[in-house]
C-alpha cells in the first residue's frame, strides 16, 4: 500500500474520532450548564476548551468563555481544526483522496456525513438544538465505524485505520481525565466531596461510560475505581489500556503481514507493558496528572514512530 | 434557417433505433420524471462524481448535469464509426513514431515541417525514441459530430489524456439502476469491460526491462484536480495504485513508489498530468508535480509512460487538418471518417476567407480546449466578432476556422418536457498490443436551447450512449 494512502486512512480514523470527542465535550458542557454549581459554569466550559486541545485558539479569537461561542467554536468553526465541521470535512477529504482504498459503504458513510454537514451549516444556528447536533455526530461516527468493520478487507489499510482510531481515542481519554483532575479539582478540600463526584460522573458521561461503569463496579464512584476503569480495565472501550492493546494488535498484524518489524512494534510493546504493570495505587503515587502527562507524551511519541515507520514513505 | 438532423424523429416518424423509447417517455409524466432526476442527482452526489471548473470558484463539488434521455446508435452505424476511429488511431500513432523518427511524412512534403517541428507540443526530449509496441497515444479520444443520417465528422482528436470516460461508465450504471426495464426491452451492448480493457492495454506496453507481471499505476496531479474523481474511479476499477508525483522516485534504472512495505517498482505509468509536469529535470524545473529523473528511466526502457511524452503534437488543431493525409500516407487507405473542412489562418488565402466570413464560421485557438477562447460566428454579436477579428489579426497562426456545423439533436429532458438539443460524441479508442473500442462513448449535450457548445465548462451535460446489438 502507498505510504500516502496509509497516512490518509490513519487520518480518516483520527479525524472521525476527534469529531466524536468534540461532540462529547459539547454534550457534557451542555449538561454541566444545567447543574447548580458553586463556581458557576464558566470554569467548566473553560475546562472543556482545554480538553479540546485548542483553548488558546479560542481565546485568541473570542477572548471570553461563553456558552454559545464555545458551542459554535467546537461544532462549526472552521478556524478550529478540532471542530466537528473541520474534522468531518478533513476526514471526508482524506477519504476522497484514497477513495480506492475504501469500500463504497465506507465512502458513502463519510460522504453522507459531509453532505449533511453542509445542509446543517446552511440552516440558521439558533434553530439547531445542541443535543440533536451531538446525536447527529455520534450517529455518523458510528456509521463510518460500522461500515469499516462490516465491509472493509482485513488488510493493511484496515490496520492503519484502527491504529488511527486507537491512538486518537487514547489521547482523548487521557486529556479528558487530565482536565478533570487538573482543572476541576484545584483545591484539596473538594476531593471526595459531592461536587467531586458530580464532576467525575460528568467525565464518565463524556466518555459514554456512565452506565457501563456502574455495571462494571457498582457502588460509590471513587477516584480509584474511575482511574482503574478508564486507564487499566480492558473491558472499557475507551480505557487507555484497551486503546494501547488495540494498537499493539494491529501493529503486530502489520509486522506479520509485511514480514518485518519496525521500531513501532517495540514502542507499543513497551507502552503496553508499562500500563499492565500499573495499579490505581501506583498511578496515584506517581500523581494522576503526572501519570497522564507522561502517557500523553509517550502516545505522541508512538504516533511519531508510526509515522516514520510506515506513513512517511521515507524508509528504505 | 438551418435545419438540424434529429436523431430520433424523421418528421413525425420515430426512427428505428429509438422505436422503443416512445412508450418509455409516455410512461413518464412530469412528476415521475422530476423524481427520477432528483434520484439520479442524489446518487451522483453520493458517489462523489463531481467536477470543479478552473478559475470559477464557487462550489468545488459541482455535478455535471446528467440527462436521462439516452442517445442511440444502430449496430451498423456503430460498425462504421468503429472502423473509422480505429483507422484514425492507427494513423495518428504511425505519425507520432514517424515525426520522432525519420520524419518521412515531412520529407515527402505531405505536411509542413514547421507545423511539426516548431510545434509547442513537439518534445525534442523524446526524438529518436520509439515507445514499446510503437504506441505514443494509448487512449485516443476522437470527438465526432453528426449532421445527417450517414454524415459524421471528426471535430478533433485527443491524443494526450482525454477525460470523461468515468461519465460514460457512470451514466450507464445510473440508467441501468433507474430504468432496468429499458435494458430488458432493448438489446444494448455493454461497456462495463472498459477498465479491464484499459488495464490490459497498459500492461501490454510494459517496457523492455520489465520481465514480470507489470505493475501499472495512474499518476494524478492530486485531489484538487477537476478530474480527480475520474482518476480514482479508474484506479479503483482497474485495481491499480493512484499515485502522485511525490509517491514516486527514481533509483538507478527504475522508478519506485513509496509503500508501507518499502519501495516497490513501477513498470507502466498512466499519467493524467501534462508533459510539462512529468519530470522537473527534463521539462519545468518549477513543477512540484513531477518525478525528477523519470524521463531518463523512460528513455532507457525502465518504465513506460502512457500517453507517451510528445503525443500532443498529433492532436494540435492545425495538425488535425492533415490527419486524412496521414491515413493515406501510412495506411494506404481512404479515411472512413471525414474531417470538418478547416481554414488555417496561418495561410494568407485562408485568412482572407475567414476574415470576410467571420459571421458564419466557428473560430478556435489552435491550442485551446474546453470551449474556451472560441468564436461561434452565428451566435455572436457584432462587437464580439470585431473583438475576435483583432485577436486573429494579431496572431493568425494561432487560429483555425470551420463552418458552423448543423450538429444533430437528440431528445433531451428540459424544464418544459422534452426538446431537441445538440450533441456530440467522444469514444475512447484503446491502443496497445491491439486496438480496441468499447461500443459507446460519452455523449455530451448542449443543454441551453440553440447552443452548439457541449463542453461541461460551458453548461453542457452528458447522456448515456447506446449501441444496439444485432
Cα(first) to Cα(last) distance of chain A is: 15 Å
The gross shape of chain A turns out to be globular
Q: Uncertain spans of chain B, ≥5 residues at pLDDT below 50?
A: 52-58
- The beta-strand count of chain B equals 25
Proportion of strand residues of chain B: 15-25%
Please report the number of helical segments of chain A. 15
Spatial strand arrangement across the major sheet of chain B = 5-25-24-21-20
Structural class of chain B: alpha+beta
Structural category of chain A is mainly alpha
Q: Estimate the helix proportion of chain A, in percent.
A: over 70%
| Rg from Cα of chain A | 20 Å
Helix content of chain B: 25-40%
- Rounded mean pLDDT of chain A is 87
The counted number of beta strands of chain A is 0
For the record, the count of structural domains of chain B works out to: 2
Feature tags:
heterodimer; A: 316 residues; mainly alpha; 2 domains; 0% strand; B: 470 residues; alpha+beta; Dna Ligase, domain 1; 5-stranded mixed β-sheet; globular
How would you characterize this protein structure?
The complex is a heterodimer of chains A (316) and B (470). Chain A is mainly α and 316 residues long. Chain A contains 15 helices and no strands. Chain A folds into 2 domains: 1-152, no CATH class; 156-316, no CATH class. The radius of gyration of chain A is 20 Å and the shape is globular. The model of chain A is unreliable at 183-191 (pLDDT under 50). With 470 residues, chain B is of the alpha+beta class. Chain B has 2 domains: 9-336 and 406-467, no CATH class; 341-403, 2-Layer Sandwich (Dna Ligase, domain 1), CATH 3.30.1490. Chain B has 14 helices and 25 strands. Chain B has a 5-stranded mixed sheet. The longest helix of chain B is centred in the N-terminal third of the chain and has 25 residues, at 75-99. Chain B is globular, with a radius of gyration of 22 Å. Chain B starts with 8 loop residues before the first strand and ends with a strand.
Amino acid at each position: 500500500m502507498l505510504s500516502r494512502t496509509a497516512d490518509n486512512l490513519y487520518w480518516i480514523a483520527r479525524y472521525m474520532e476527534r469529531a466524536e470527542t468534540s461532540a462529547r465535550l459539547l454534550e457534557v458542557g451542555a449538561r454541566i450548564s444545567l447543574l447548580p454549581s458553586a463556581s458557576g459554569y464558566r470554569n467548566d466550559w473553560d475546562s472543556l476548551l482545554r480538553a479540546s486541545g485548542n483553548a488558546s485558539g479560542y481565546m485568541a479569537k473570542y477572548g471570553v468563555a461563553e456558552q454559545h461561542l464555545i458551542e459554535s467554536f467546537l461544532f462549526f468553526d472552521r478556524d478550529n481544526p478540532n471542530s466537528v465541521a473541520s474534522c468531518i470535512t478533513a476526514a471526508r477529504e482524506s477519504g476522497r483522496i484514497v477513495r480506492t482504498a475504501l469500500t463504497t459503504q465506507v465512502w458513502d458513510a463519510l460522504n453522507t456525513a459531509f453532505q449533511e454537514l453542509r445542509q446543517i451549516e446552511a440552516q440558521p444556528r439558533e434553530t439547531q438544538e445542541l443535543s440533536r447536533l451531538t446525536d447527529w455526530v455520534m450517529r455518523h461516527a458510528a456509521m463510518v465505524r460500522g461500515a469499516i468493520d462490516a465491509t472493509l478487507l482485513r488488510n493493511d489499510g484496515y490496520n492503519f485505520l484502527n491504529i488511527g482510531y486507537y491512538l486518537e481515542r487514547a489521547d482523548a481519554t487521557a486529556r479528558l481525565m487530565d482536565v478533570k483532575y487538573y482543572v476541576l479539582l484545584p483545591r484539596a478540600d473538594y476531593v471526595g466531596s459531592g461536587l467531586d463526584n458530580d464532576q467525575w460522573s460528568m467525565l464518565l458521561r463524556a466518555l459514554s461510560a456512565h452506565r457501563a461503569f456502574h455495571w462494571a463496579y457498582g457502588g460509590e464512584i471513587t477516584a480509584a475505581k474511575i482511574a482503574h476503569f478508564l486507564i487499566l480495565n480492558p473491558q472499557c472501550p475507551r480505557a487507555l489500556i484497551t486503546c494501547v492493546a488495540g494498537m499493539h494488535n494491529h501493529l503486530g498484524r502489520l509486522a506479520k503481514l509485511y514480514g518485518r518489524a519496525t521500531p513501532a512494534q517495540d514502542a507499543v510493546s513497551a507502552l503496553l507493558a508499562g500500563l499492565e504493570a500499573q495499579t490505581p495505587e501506583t498511578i496515584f503515587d506517581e500523581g494522576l496528572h503526572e501519570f497522564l502527562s507522561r502517557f500523553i507524551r509517550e502516545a505522541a511519541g508512538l504516533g511519531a514512530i508510526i509515522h516514520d515507520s510506515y506513513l512517511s514513505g521515507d524508509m528504505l | 434557417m438551418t435545419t438540424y438532423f434529429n436523431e430520433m424523429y424523421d418528421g413525425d416518424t420515430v426512427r428505428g433505433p429509438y422505436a422503443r423509447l416512445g412508450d418509455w417517455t409516455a410512461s413518464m409524466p412530469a412528476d415521475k420524471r422530476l423524481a427520477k432526476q432528483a434520484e439520479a442527482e442524489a446518487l451522483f452526489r453520493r458517489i462523489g462524481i463531481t467536477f470543479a471548473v478552473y478559475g470559477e470558484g464557487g462550489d468545488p463539488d459541482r455535478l455535471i448535469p446528467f440527462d436521462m434521455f439516452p442517445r442511440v446508435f444502430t449496430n451498423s452505424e456503430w460498425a462504421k464509426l468503429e472502423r473509422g476511429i480505429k483507422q484514425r488511431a492507427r494513423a495518428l500513432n504511425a505519425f507520432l513514431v514517424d515525426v520522432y523518427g525519420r520524419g518521412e511524412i515531412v520529407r515527402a512534403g505531405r505536411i509542413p515541417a514547421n507545423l511539426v517541428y516548431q510545434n509547442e507540443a513537439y518534445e525534442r526530449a523524446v526524438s529518436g525514441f520509439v515507445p514499446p509496441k510503437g504506441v505514443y497515444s494509448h487512449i485516443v479520444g476522437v470527438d465526432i459530430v453528426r449532421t445527417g443520417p450517414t454524415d459524421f465528422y471528426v471535430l478533433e482528436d485527443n491524443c494526450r489524456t482525454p477525460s470523461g470516460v468515468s461519465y460514460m461508465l457512470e451514466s450507464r450504471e445510473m440508467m441501468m439502476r433507474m430504468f432496468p426495464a429499458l435494458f430488458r426491452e432493448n438489446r444494448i451492448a455493454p461497456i462495463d469491460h472498459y477498465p479491464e480493457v484499459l488495464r490490459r492495454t497498459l500492461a501490454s506496453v510494459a517496457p523492455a526491462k520489465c520481465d514480470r507481471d507489470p505493475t501499472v499505476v495512474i499518476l494524478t496531479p492530486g485531489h484538487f484536480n477537476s478530474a480527480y474523481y475520474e482518476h480514482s474511479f479508474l484506479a479503483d476499477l482497474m485495481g491499480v495504485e493512484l499515485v502522485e508525483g511525490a509517491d514516486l522516485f527514481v533509483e538507478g534504472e527504475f522508478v519506485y513508489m513509496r509503500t508501507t512495505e518499502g519501495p516497490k517498482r513501477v513498470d507502466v505509468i498512466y499519467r493524467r498530468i501534462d508533459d510539462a509536469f512529468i519530470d522537473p529535470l527534463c521539462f519545468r524545473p518549477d513543477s512540484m508535480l513531477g518525478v525528477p529523473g523519470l524521463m531518463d528511466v523512460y528513455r532507457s526502457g525502465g518504465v513506460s509512460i502512457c500517453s507517451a511524452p510528445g503525443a500532443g503534437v498529433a492532436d494540435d488543431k492545425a495538425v488535425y487538418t492533415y490527419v486524412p493525409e496521414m491515413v493515406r500516407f501510412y495506411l494506404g487507405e481512404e479515411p472512413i471518417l471525414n474531417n470538418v473542412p478547416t481554414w488555417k489562418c496561418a495561410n494568407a488565402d485562408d485568412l482572407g476567407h475567414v476574415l470576410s466570413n467571420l459571421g458564419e464560421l466557428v473560430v478556435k485557438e489552435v491550442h485551446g480546449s474546453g470551449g474556451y477562447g472560441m468564436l461561434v460566428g452565428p451566435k455572436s454579436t457584432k462587437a464580439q466578432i470585431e473583438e475576435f477579428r483583432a485577436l486573429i489579426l494579431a496572431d493568425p497562426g494561432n487560429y483555425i476556422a470551420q463552418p458552423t456545423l448543423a450538429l444533430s439533436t437528440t431528445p433531451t429532458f428540459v424544464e418544459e418536457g422534452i426538446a431537441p438539443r445538440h450533441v456530440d460524441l467522444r469514444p475512447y479508442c484503446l491502443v496497445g498490443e491491439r486496438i480496441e473500442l468499447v461500443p459507446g462513448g460519452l455523449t455530451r449535450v448542449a443543454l441551453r436551447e440553440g447552443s452548439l457548445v457541449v463542453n461541461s465548462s460551458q453548461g453542457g451535460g452528458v447522456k448515456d450512449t447506446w449501441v444496439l446489438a444485432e
